[in-house]
Specification:
Rossmann fold, 2 domains, transferase, globular, ten-stranded mixed sheet, about 45% helix, alpha/beta, about 15% strand
Length: about 775
């Protein structure tokens, strides 16, 4: 069969034990066996470390995709890096984020199997020789790539795929060559330099940091993976048994490479290098093969996130790849020039090489010209990709551009994390929804069924009690389990607008203070997420959240009407606890900035209602459930564009809205930081004078919309009916549907629902 290779620098897998039991259909058997040994399975599960080899959405998407590809019976492989240290552990000290190394392999990893017999060399530096026999890349430094395989089981179909992660190893002669005669000890210590390549995950989400070690990581995973792909292609019965060399004509029919963002973009020049320099394939033929093999998924439109590597760094590290990129770009620009004669500005806009004080390689442009398919990750995002980010490229080759709306695996995000809800659903419609989430539509028949309404509400209440107990046990915070659990968990970023959430919390607080006798819907506002260590504003936002909590949670006038909790060290295993307990899901990015979001989908399927902007997949969630069944507020993309043309003036809102002014003045005056009154001046200054994400512009609509949330929450039956409608309409957001679309429309393969016979039965 055609093999699918999903290349990603991140795989945010979380824990594996329970997921393996669920997918193998062994959970009850194991539970019983462990119980009979006098142990508690849940206690055991809490001991496992998260595999935190990702930052957020992009890395978690890769993990969901692996689960779906196995469940759909695809011959798929995940390829990435086995980081010794994953995403840092977050400690909150004195209200500030402090990072701690994530030594996740300290006690070993039972799920991986080292494969030293498949170890491969990866080359760096050196120079290029153009000889009559062809091009040679010589005098390189070699690092070895050691593969570690982790099994990826499909859901009860006896399929087990592989995630192969590469670890960097120094060759035994490293730095011991002739020129380094004397210092043996020094040379052996220098092995660390080579092995640092797979030491640590770069902790940036939606931000490009042009470090040489990161470029090394990107080439390392690509070079090792492509050698593996080609070895497997040649050894399969399809590699035409040509005695001289394999015929690569059939390569794109047997191999599909999906690039998860631009991080593995070097696959394009590397495949060209292997085909042309090593396998001696004709250049134009090699380019056709490369384009038919590769496909690119774009994950963001934020300019600061786009990878633009200095040409000088390439020249030093990957000189042959730079030559190839120049040649590909020339070919590309010749074609554009022929189609648009005299349009010099178009050539500048479309070039892979950006001219300027520092010449750079635009990796997104490289991906677009080197792929046969380019996709965004939600309809609105794919439209922005076509109409603005890659507008020129879309005009050139509109057939290349597609949409593939993201999804989540219902095994981890419903069955595993919310067994109570899964049971209540299965009682009504059977278990088919687990592998065909669209069957949740059948729940619409029970929207007025009193027992079902009661059961759904009861499951939510039990989840809330359980999470409240967990918070008390772990963090010694007592919360009111009958309050509304209002949750915003995601990486901390200005565009995700945790600050808007903060302003609502302060506004609520001020209303309670000004009229304590009035009746308020009690809320527990929970905000969690990590800030990139070098992102000053994100760290200030965390400090602001914890400071607001300090004041509100200790004000006797407030009592348990309002609490603000910062959820420390948000990660996959914590998401599995908090999401099933949430009443309200906050998805409040400025319209046009969140490519898709996937947390939004997890909350929807787990029975929370969404307050959100028309951004990312929220748009499609509203379309599926009906806009009246979400709390949609604020500017649409068109409004944001109009405001940009007109000029956004934050002060105008500050002057006009007294509650907003009061909140900002409190932050500014040190009301929330009495020990350091000037603590938040950077935050206030940003909001007032250079807020790219227009927090104030949506404040009024947001507060009003939160009022509607309160109104509905006071009528539990009406609230639960809306919850049921949301769950019933969440079927589209299964990663099984997403992967089925990738398979048919990009990779050219058909998913299969057939269960293969277990290994203990003889095959036909």
């Amino acid at each position: 069969p055609q093999r699918i290779y999903y290349l990603s620098l991140e795989f945010y897998m979380g824990r594996t034990l329970q997921n393996t039991m669920v997918n193998l259909g062994l959970q009850n058997a194991c539970d019983e066996a462990i119980y009979q040994l006098g142990l508690d399975l849940e206690e055991l599960e809490e001991i496992e470390e998260d595999a935190g080899l990702g930052n957020g959405g992009l890395g978690r998407l890769a993990a969901c995709f692996l689960d779906s590809m196995a469940t759909l019976g695809l011959a798929a492989y995940g390829y990435g890096i086995r980081y010794e240290f994953g995403i840092f552990n977050q400690k909150i000290v004195d209200g500030w984020q402090v990072e701690e190394a994530d030594d996740w392999l300290r006690y070993g990893n039972p799920w991986e199997k080292a494969r030293p017999e498949y170890m491969l060399p990866v080359h760096f530096y050196g120079r290029v020789d153009h000889t009559p026999e062809g091009v040679k890349w010589v005098d390189t430094q070699v690092v070895l790539a050691m593969p570690y395989d982790t099994p990826v089981p499909g859901y009860k179909n006896n399929t087990v795929n592989t995630m192969r992660l590469w670890s960097a190893k120094a060759p035994n002669d490293f730095n011991l060559q002739e020129f380094n005669v004397g210092d043996y000890i020094e040379a052996v210590l220098d092995r660390n330099l080579a092995e640092n390549i797979s030491r640590v995950l770069y902790p940036n989400d939606n931000f490009f940091e042009g470090k040489e070690l990161r470029l090394k990581q990107e080439y390392f995973v690509v070079a090792a993976t492509l050698q593996d792909i080609i070895r497997r292609f040649k050894s399969s019965k399809f590699g035409c048994r040509d005695p001289v060399r394999t015929c690569f004509e059939t390569f794109p029919d047997k191999v599909a490479i999906q690039l998860n963002d631009t991080h593995p973009a070097l696959s394009i020049p590397e495949l060209m290098r292997i085909l042309v320099d090593v396998e001696k394939v004709d250049w134009d033929k090699a380019w056709e093969i490369t384009k038919r093999t590769c496909a690119y998924t774009n994950h963001t439109v934020l300019p600061e996130a786009l990878e633009r590597w200095p040409v000088s760094m390439f020249q030093k590290l990957l000189p042959r790849h730079l030559e190839i990129i120049y040649a590909l770009n020339q070919m590309h620009l010749d074609r554009v020039a022929a189609l648009y004669p005299g349009d010099i500005d178009r050539l500048r806009r479309m070039s892979v090489i950006e001219e300027g004080d520092c010449k750079r390689i635009n990796m997104a442009h490289l991906c677009v010209i080197g792929s046969h398919a380019v996709n965004g990750v939600a309809r609105i995002h794919s439209d922005i990709v076509k109409n603005s980010v890659f507008k020129d490229f879309y005009e050139l080759e509109p057939e290349k551009f597609q949409n593939k709306t993201n999804g989540i695996t219902p095994r981890r995000w419903l069955l595993l994390c919310n067994p109570g809800l899964a049971d209540v659903i299965a009682e009504k419609i059977g278990e088919g929804f687990i592998t065909d989430l669209s069957q949740l539509k059948k729940l619409l028949d029970f929207i007025n069924n009193e027992t079902f309404i009661r059961d759904v509400a009861k499951v939510k209440q039990e989840n809330k009690l359980k999470f409240a107990a967990y918070l008390e046990e772990q963090y010694k915070v007592k919360i009111n389990p009958s309050s509304m659990f209002d949750v915003q968990v995601k990486r901390i970023h200005e565009y995700k607008r945790q600050l808007l959430n903060c302003l609502h919390a302060i506004t609520l607080y001020n209303r309670i203070r000004s009229d304590p006798s009035n009746s308020f819907v009690p809320r527990t506002i929970m905000i969690g997420g990590k800030a990139a260590p070098g992102y000053h504003m994100a760290k200030m936002i965390i400090k602001l959240i914890t400071s607001i909590g300090e004041v509100i949670n200790n004000d006797p006038y407030v009592g348990d009407k309002l609490k603000v909790i910062f959820l420390e060290n948000y990660r996959v295993s914590l998401a599995e606890k908090v999401i099933p307990a949430a009443d309200l899901s906050q998805q409040i990015s400025t319209a046009g900035t969140e490519a898709s979001g996937t947390g939004n989908m997890k909350f929807m399927v787990n029975g929370a209602l969404t307050i959100g902007t028309m951004d990312g997949a929220n748009v499609e969630m509203a379309e599926e459930a009906g806009e009246e069944n979400l709390f949609i507020f604020g500017m649409r993309v068109e409004d944001v564009e109009a405001l940009d043309r007109q000029g956004y003036n934050a002060r105008e809102y500050y002057e006009r809205l007294p509650e907003l002014r009061q909140a900002i003045d409190q932050i500014s005056s040190g009301f929330f930081s009495p020990r350091d009154p000037g603590c938040f001046r950077d935050v206030v200054n940003m909001l007032m004078y250079h807020d790219r994400f227009k927090v104030f512009a949506d404040y009024e609509a947001y507060i009003e919309c939160q009022g509607q949330v309160d109104q509905l929450f006071m009528d539990p039956r009406a609230w639960t009916k809306k919850v049921i409608r949301n769950i019933a309409c969440s079927g589209k957001f299964s990663s099984d549907r997403t992967i089925t679309e990738y398979a048919r429309e990009i990779w050219g393969v058909e998913p299969s629902a057939t269960k293969i016979p277990p290994p203990n039965l003889p095959r036909d």
